[in-house]
Structure formats: structure tokens, C-alpha cells
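User: Hello, can you help with two protein structures?

Assistant: Certainly.
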Amino acid sequence: MKMQFCCGIAALTLVLASCGKSKVDPGNGGNNNNSGGNNGGDNGGTTTESVYLTNAKATHAFIASGYATSYGSYRVNTTTNTGGAFEWYVASQLYADAAMVNLGDKSYKSSMNNTLTWLNKLVDKTDANGGLFAAAGLDGSGAGGGKYVDDNALTGMAFLAGYDVTSGTDRDAYLTAAQGCAKWLMNSGQWDNDLGGGFWWSTDKTVKPSQSNGLAMQLFCRLYKITGNADYKNWATLVNNWLNGQMYDSTTGLYIWQIEKNGTKDTYKFTYDNAIIVEAQLLYADAMQDATYQTKAQALGNAMIKTLWDKGHNVFIFNTNDPRINPCYSGWATQAMIRLYELDNNSNWLVYAKGNVDAINVVLKNPALNGYYQYAALDGAGRYSNLEGVDQAWMQRIQTLLSKYK
């Protein structure tokens, strides 16, 4: 998962291709007149479609018109990289389409299945343990750019989202693909005893980040729940213990960014890192039948609101050292807040889930295109001009999820 920072925190260049509730008052979500909901109509028993579902469909239409290819892949963007595709961008689109199918729209299933076929082309055939490369040409040729733990783990989770909404041989294919992602994670040597354990970000082995490990934990929990294979249980426990032992900051109640190869801990707190771990803890609670992790997830959600929610602009910031907004990295918090609501029915979580989306729609949406720019300051200053495919995918996905409740 390639984090693109402009402030020198990190950069990745790929030849081929270029991851009790708070008392904070989230206010009105940005006064953007984007607060529609699933309100039952009075005229003939009709039901008004959620504005968030309408937005998700419009964004999908934008994706289909400019990013989608006949191969089942999606362009990185429509400006600077139109001939290449990133694994995690494409997997995120599959993840988004699976949410639409789960909502009852079967028309998304065909493109979702085509994307599964394309992603399988990225599996490293020269490695007995497989693993998906980070990038390829639009037709799947020339796969390379290294292999990343977060990319493979997120792709595995997207495959399981496909598994959830299909049946028969299609369902089997999604499960097999997800297990292939887990096989590489477990056997690739990306986990070792350096720095007390943990997964390296990539095969370059330079850093061990929270988000890579959190996504791997999600995948292992889900696969254990589905298959009952104790290997997945053991790996989930191993990752969970490392995250809590090495990456948890008890002062803020949040997880830090990463540990560098030399042992230096980078202690910035990222919204999407912590959102990922909220979901990992909820999945761990379910897989292990341990309700204490539900409480941990709720506490982590509250810690996110306390530290990563900007009260003045009603949005989750990128990280504590860089208070910009990004559709994917900030938007990930909406998914986590929705999962917490689904756990305990506390509508306060939805207030933040909705406010976050509303603010992104004000600051980063191009209403003429129904697409989303990559970054901007909280007030919209310095807005980037590029519209990355992954940001479109995540705005489709989180608004689809939100439309079930708002």
C-alpha cells in the first residue's frame, strides 16, 4: 500500500507502476447539504434512496467511464499513469463492488469476478508460496514492483468480501484466492524475529508498519472463522500480540505508524492504521469468541475520535503530523465507525461515520465528475489535481456501506 506523502515522510517509486463514547461534538458534518437518508416515503409506500447510495453509484459510473478496462483491471489514474494498474487499487475496487452486491445490486458481480481473474494474473508463478506483485500492465502483463504485505492482506480481504456475496464455484474461487494471499504471508519470510517479530512492509524489509500487520490480522481472523484451520488462529494471535506489545501507545490509546529497520519507532498516529486495527480487533473478538476485544475496539474508536477527529472541520485527518484529508486514508475511518455501530447499535458512531464522508464530499469531490481529488488541507487549500483510482474505489465503498444506515 503505497502512501504518497508530500511532506517527506515516505515515498515509493515503482518503475512499473509509479496502503463510554467521546463527548466530542462532530457538529453538522460540514454544512454540505449532503445528509440524505433512507427515509420511508409517504407517497404510495415508496422509499427514497439514500443520497450516499446515489453518490456511490455516480462515483462508480465515473470509474467505469475512465478507469475500468476490458481486462478487469483499473487504471491508476486518468492523468499521469493511464497504462498501469496497482494491485491494491484494483483490489479496493473489487472491495467496493462487493459492497454493492452485498446491498443487493447483482449487476456489479460480473465486473467483480473479472477483477478476481485479473488479480490472479499478478500471482508470482516463480515462488512456491505465490504472493501478488504490486503492479502490472492493464492486461496483467509485466507484473512486478515487489510484493507487499499490506497489498496482499488487503487483497485477501477483498477476496473474502467476494466470497461473502457469491456461491458455488465463484465462492470457492474467492476463498482459494484469499487463502493464497495468506499462504504467502505465512511462508514468505516477511515475518521474522527482528524488532520482536511483526511483518515487514515489503520484500525490501525496511519497516514494519501497524497497517500491514493489522490487515494481516484481519485476514487470518476471517480465514480461521471460515475454515477452522488452527494455523490461521495461531497467526492471528501472533500478530495481535506483536501489535499490542510493540505498536500500542497507552498514552493516546492509539497505535503508532511503524518501526524502522534500525529500531527507531515512528510515533505518528494515522487514521487508517487505527481504523484497520479497530476492524482487526472486532474480527478477532468474533473469531476467538473473546468479547474483551469488542471493548478494546470501542476504546480504540473513541481514541481515534479524541486525537484524529478535527472538530473544526468535522473530519478524520490523515495523521497527527499531517492534518490533510484523503478520500481513502481518511475515509477508512468511516468503515471502522460503521463496524462499531454494527457491534453495539450506538448511533454516535454513525454521526462520525457520516460527518467524515460529508466533509470529504465538500472538500475533495468534483461534483461535475462525481470523482474525488487525492489530497487537500482541511479547508480545501492546496487541493491536488489528480484523481487516483483507489480514492474513487473507497468513496464508492464507504458510501455504499453508509447508505444502509443513513
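That covers the first. Now for the second protein you mentioned:
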Amino acid sequence: MGGIYWLISKVMLFWHTVWDSIMSDHRVVGTNWQWVLAIVFLVITVRVVLFPIFVKQIKSQRAMQAIQPKMKELQEKHKGDRETLQKEVMKLYQEEKVNPLMGCLPMFLQIPVFIGLLHVLRHLKPGTSDHQMQLYGWSKEEFLSAVDARLFDAPIVAKFSSSTADLIKIDASSTAVKIVAACLVALMITTTYLTQRQMIKKTGWNTDPQQRMIQKFMLYGIPFFTLTSGWYFPIGVIIYWVTNNAITLAQQYWVLHKYPPPASASVNTVPFKSGGTAKVSEPKPSGFAALFSRAKEEAAAQRANGKGTVKATGGKATGAKATGAQATDSAANGAPSRAPRPGAKPINPKKGGAAKRQSG
């Protein structure tokens, strides 16, 4: 992991140098913005590099949704034969050129970056020897400047669980650290939840029970993990996480509109709407399709109005006319009329049958 630590340090120091040349070297609103922006642009750099993979992730998810009907057919066809089912599923993936692992690849690629930044920020602490300061490409001046960097008077190397002795070494206020850390953890939980919610709200719950379980874990389990782990993360790492989630929300919004879910995904129910679950609205037709759809709706409405008018003007008269017409048709064909006479009482078929048997 030494190469990852060195790379993260170099990218972070590069952006610190850029912003240090633009801004004056003093705190504004109790914040060293050069270091805060260095972390923010570290995230942006990573996301720009991973953006093509992120697009492939969305396309892979769309492809997985599109083949869900075929997956169901295979599951029903090979029910009870797990080995054959796995072979057929792998064959389907090859035919449709779908890679189910692509959906998790961007997250896995960001894990080393996150661990690297966490290690570098934990490495930044007072009392470190000159040799240790210069690890991963840092100079002594840059090291001491980063240790002293603040966000609203809370050091970016401090964490919510920092002891009083540790905070005294970096001349930090325990109240400021806890307030800033708590606000950032709340933002981290919220943005983590909204990131997963945005995806599920657009694509719907997966019909596969295992995939739905994964969706629920991502929606509720990951935010809970951030709540518990935020206690131990340095403030600089939480800045990284919040920035990463904000960029993910923006990227997902763009990609979900550019590459909308397939039509087969519209049958899935979508949570988070008032009155329970609802179906994903299908795209509205346009052009000639819209004109044809409108004409079809108008014709259906006219037919419905016509039937309603007939029923409203008196169904009895209509029924009498129909009875008379049936009698006329029967007489014309030479068959006796079966229509009841006006005012006659209905005949019970059972009693009628019994009377015929007695007379016979």
C-alpha cells in the first residue's frame, strides 16, 4: 500500500500548491481553505479518472435489468437443478455481454483511495520525527502546515473520539471538534442514504429476493455503518466522503437521465411515495405516437359516453325493444316465440318441468 499512500499524498499536495498560489496563506472563517480544497479536488481527480467506469457501471445495471425476464424463465425451467441453472446463467451473460461484477467495480476502486487518505491523515500528528514527516513525498513545512490545518477551528486531523490529551497537542477545542465532526457525520449519513435512494427510486426494487436484500443493505446498512464509523474518522476523511457522495449524486442524476432504465424496469414498485408503493411511470409518447394515442383516447371516451347515455335514458325500454326484436326474429324463422308475454309472471323451470311430467 506504500505506492497508494505516496500517490494520494502527491495528488493532495499538488492541489494544495495550486490553491496556495491563489489564496493568501491565512485562515478565513477559522478555515485553512487550501487544505480543505485540496481534499475536495482529490475527490474530483479520482472521480474524473473513474467516470468512464462509472458509466459502464450504469450500463451494466441497465443490461442486468433488461435480461431479468430471461433470468426468470431460466429459473423456472431449471428449478431444482442448481448446477444447470448456473451454467445457463453464465451462458446468458456471455450472449448478452453482461458483466454483473461491473456494478461494484467503481466502489472497489475507490476503497484503496479512501484507505490511503485515512492512513495519510492519521500519519499527520505532532511529535513526529523529521524522517517520518518526509515519508510519502511530504516536506517538513507541508507536514506541519497540514497538521495545523482547520475547518471552522477544528483540525482536519482530529476526530470526534479524539481524547483531550490529543487535542491539547494540536491546540484544538474539544467543543469545536465535536460540533464540526457531528455536522459532517450527519451530512455523510444523509448523502450516503440519498445516493442509494436516488438509484432505487429511478430503477425500482429488484424482483430477485437476493438482489433486493442487497439494495436494502445499501440503502439502510451503509448509512448505519457511516454513523458508527464516523466516530473514528478524522475530519479530513469525512470531508472526502461527503464530497464523494455529492459528486455521486450529481453523476447519477446525469447518467440516469441520459441512460434511463429499460421498459422492463417499469413493472417494479418504487418506494418513497405517499400512499404506499407506485409503479414507475412509463415515458410519454411524442410526435405521431402522441397524436395517435390522443385520438384513441378520444374515441374511447366517446364510446363510453354513448353507452352511458343509453343506460341513463332508460334501460327498461331498451330491454323491451330487444325482447320484441327477438320475438320477431323467431316468428320470421318459423320457430315459436320464447319471449314472455307482457305482464306474465316468470315461470319456475323446476315447477314447469314437474308439471309436464305429471301431465305426461
